[in-house]
Amino acid sequence: MMLLSLNKIEKSFGSTRAVNDVSITVNQGEFFGLLGPSGCGKTTTLRMIAGLETPDAGSIEFEGRSITNLPAERRGFGMVFQNYALFPHLNVFENVAFGLRARHKSKAEMEQRVAGALELVQLPGYGKRRVDELSGGQQQRVAIARAIAIEPALLLFDEPLSNLDVSLREQTRGELRELVTRLGLTAVYVTHDQEEAFALCDRIAVMVGGKLMQTGQPRELYERPAEISVARFLGRNNFIKSMRLSSSNSSDGEFKTLEGDHTIKFEVNHDDLAPLNKPVVLAIRPEHVRLTAPDTSVTNSFKAQVRQVVFAGATSTVRVDANGLLLEALVLQPNGLQVGQECSVVLAPEHLRLLRNE
Amino acid sequence: MDHTARKLPVLLLFLVTALVLVYGVLYPNLAVVTTSFQRSGQWTLANYRDVLAQRVVLEAILTSIGLSVFTVALCAFVGVPLAFLFERYDFPGRRLFGALAALPLVLPPLVGTVAFIFLCGESGILARTVQHLLGLETSPWTLRGWPALLLFHTYTMYPFFYVLTGAGLRRVDASLAEAARSLGASRVAVARRVLLPQLTPALIAAALLTFMTSMASFSAPLLFGGNVRVLTLEIFTARQRGDMTIAVTETVILATISLAALVFFQRYEGTRKFVAAALKGATRRREPIKSGGVRVMATLSAIVFSVILVLPVATLILVSFAGDGSWTTQTIPSQYTLGNFRRLFSEPQSYEVFLNSLLMSAIAAVGALAWSFCVVTLLMRRVRSRVLGPGVRRILSLLILIPWALPGTVVAVSIAEAYGQPGSLLGSFVLVGTFWILPVIYFLRFMPLVVRALQASMEQLDPSLDEAARSLGARVWQRFARVTLPLVWPGAVAGTLLAFVIALGEYVASVLVFVPANRPISIAIASELRDFNLGAAAAYGVVLIGIIAISMIVAGKLERWRA
Hints:
heterodimer, A: 5-stranded antiparallel beta sheet, 23% helix, elongated, B: mainly alpha, MetI-like fold, two-stranded antiparallel sheet, two-stranded parallel ribbon, 4 strands, disordered N terminus
């Protein structure tokens, strides 16, 4: 069931267009991610959902009603800020009770709900503490408790884990997801960390340069990025500039690489994506590039030379040069691979993606 | 809520701000300028021709400017080396001087002047000591004219250079000097080409403050200027004579010089601002002085300068206990009594003076605090509104700055001129001769301090706190009462206290427009001094300093508490 929808919203600051024609829908109970590099407009989008900014154009609807011009204080959405924004002059209890006081709740109800919220974030009995006595992780949990204490209709997160160190971040991530699911809340979560977004979110909208590029489930985005910018942002890729050759069979595409002059065979689903005799981009992830002993009998295998072997613990990156076409391969064990060694590089057709160029 | 409803509070704040600025700054200053260019209802330059034709006035203008230029030079000469010594090196006695260095800044000018007379005057303690030691017939010197004024100005205004240079030195990124050294620059070259350019903004700011304060100086020229006539004094005597047109014309001249100086210095400062390129700098550690001889010298100088700073105040305290007529030709008073203080607190006409000043200063300070909240809210960049473009904000800031930049004499004359008689254009009301004239003038003169303090506090406030409160459902007033106010009040109250204590000792403007039924402390001190009740004058000064000291300690505590 659709809970929140953004319809063609736009926002500019001065001459910079921060958010450009973005439409998003978020369903009830969904954990929705806004992912993108810094400056892509994801935080501005979140702030418009929160009511902290007003869109220049477009509308925002919640439960079927327009909330485009409703002030933040009337929306009833909980928000967790990047720097937590805990009130430094109030103790933990008063921070968590802040929204309840604004709603003029009775003392008994307030105490019960604050205690409940602190229990949920595993900080029972911390009410009397000053916020500056808490560790970063604890402050972060107080910020979450404060946001859920008002029983929000929607929970908004603005990069809430970015100030935590790596090990704590992964642990908190798991707890956060569990908490939101347990309470049956709907969440919109802004992050620039794809791993975090993949681990947390049911669906993700990828934004680049103020525009919405693609929306989908994490796996879908990773495996089938539609745009070159999405592919570039999500994990590593080999981009191969190619030209589609005319062919008798329309679904059986044949591409000529601009570098290295290789022929790549690849089944095209939509003809309109790959017009004939025009440059296009093919992508393949390093983990899908196979290196074999010299052998060119397999489909899409070319002779290459090892240029560099970079050891990185569990995996190694091997850079090879196939007649001017530079490719990266991720291998588990670079056994016996030497710089300068001849080999074959195989680009399996099932792992190749044809990308829309921006 | 629709758009107009959300704009309403902003509009209201704007109205309050604008009313005060129009009635308090714009209208009085325009009234003064208008009057100076008019004679019997006709536009004319005749007033200026008449005023500038008088030798005395021309001389006063040149004297004021000359005195200020020399004051700036002397204060820099004293303040900058002291800042280097006490900011960059570590030695015994450093902290003692550091704690006392800014003392002259909080001393009310009139009280400082009186203390100076008791200490350095021709019948003061120092002169008498020298006279008795050498067995001279008469006092070895007189405290009159240029040397006396320059000495006093240096004593009271050198802290501008000391404090600002010290702050500048603390800000200088030590790694820059290290980088210069590593590139082969000598110590001297580093000081000249790296350190000095970075200190320039601080030095210019100090020069500006010193120049403006010196231009506005009144108490010292009045009490020991001798035949050195400065512009503030000319305005005062013209008003006493009843030559209102001349006083007003001279006021415009004084205001023009002050504002021109402000513009000149600020323009120069603008070309010399540096933005630190480094993200994270290292502050230089104080270098301990190891060489024994130098260390002794440094310590000695710390002690000597500390004694010099404290001496005037100590003298004032000593004289405040002097018995009636017990200090005529003696080096120090011969009899000591609590009588001066007893009289101060028992006689109604004495303690009433304190009550008057406390009440008027409190009204001015609290008014300034309340009004500052309106102004600062408007000046915050977060308040977006079509009425308040950056242009309007700049004009607001400028209008607020004007009463601070203008000498107290100018503010008093312009308010007296604008609100002297009823029935003017703006439907104005009469302030002259009422209780309200002094609180209004105190408010106008010292509100820039409060605005600045509050602005600094507000700018330190993390904007996401207000946003968090919004997302939690708090309305405008709830957010103000429960988030903004609790976080900014220590800084705001500290600024208000500063304005309050300066208003308590105010003399320059008070002497021009005070009402006999409502005399402030400074007027009482001046009249006791005129009647040669030296002990009583000193006692007033000591109590005033006491109140100021307590207020400053409270303000300091609040500042620390905030941090």
